[in-house]
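Dear colleague,

Thank you for sharing your sequence with our group. We've completed the structure prediction you requested, and as agreed, I am returning the results in plain text so they can be pasted directly into your records. Please verify that the sequence below matches your submission; if there's any discrepancy, let me know and we will rerun it promptly.
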Amino acid sequence: MIPRVTDLNLSDLEREETHKLWVELVRDGLGRATSVPVLVARGAHKGPVVGITAAVHGNELNGIPVIHRLFRNLPPAELRGTVVAVPVVNVPGYLREQRLFSDEADLNRLFPGRANGNDSQVYAHRFVDRIVSKLDYLIDLHTASFGRVNSLYVRADMRHDITATMARLIGPQIIVHNEGTDGTLRSAADDLGIHSITVEVGDPQRFQRGLIRASRRGIQAVLDHLDMFEHEGNEDDGDDTVECARSYWIYTDTGGTLVVSPGVADRVEKGQTIATLTDIFGQVVREYTAPEDGVVVGKSTNPVAYSGARILHLGVEGTVAPG
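Please find the predicted structure tokens below.
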């Protein structure tokens, strides 16, 4: 029987064991508990507390097997410190196979939530209060949303040495500097003094074996760097990682059928054609070009484009000065 608790009290858990818990956050209209699944590897010795979260958006699933595979290779008797993992943060969204919370809110724009707010705000507040506040470090796993694909990339505040080091240790294809002051789980953790990064692991509503493997090894590299656990090594040493000082999405200015030409992680040059938009009769109505040199962080795969539809996420290479 897996224990059900209303707060994650790590000191109550035995060392040298892996624990499975249900942590209650809210109750539905029938009075039934909505709880998140939590895995805790409690090491033999004191050390940092590292958190790993997945499925803040209910259809972003690659992070779930990343956590499962990490814990299969994480014997607590050899661990210094504690690893806390939540395979599914947005339980209502996950059960509906949808990105959003049950009240159609985007949880990752609501953190740290409100104690006396609406459904999603209370859920977000209690998740931060009952689980995230216990951490020293956080790695938040996401994917692209519906109709889009992502490279394996990290969003981090590269001005700070600790988060910059965490980002590079993941060994992603791309790192994007982002200060994260936007209601995300990462920003709420940062405000609590928790060193946090976001890892985008490919595409929604699917498991991608290669990206899952690379992400798991990257997280193990972070644990090793924190002197928590010796892993077998990350095959991707980060030498090929492209670091971007800034990034932004390019959007359509009218509707039609959209085809985006470059692949994720491809480099594009200023003036290069990146997308074509046709009307429903097959006539080309727009060709979109890259406004500057950059790298494709993510892109749209949905051919149905309204005015203002996303085309691609362009990263602009450069480093950020510490500060």
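Summary note from our side: The first helix runs from residue 63 to 72.

Kind regards,
the structure core
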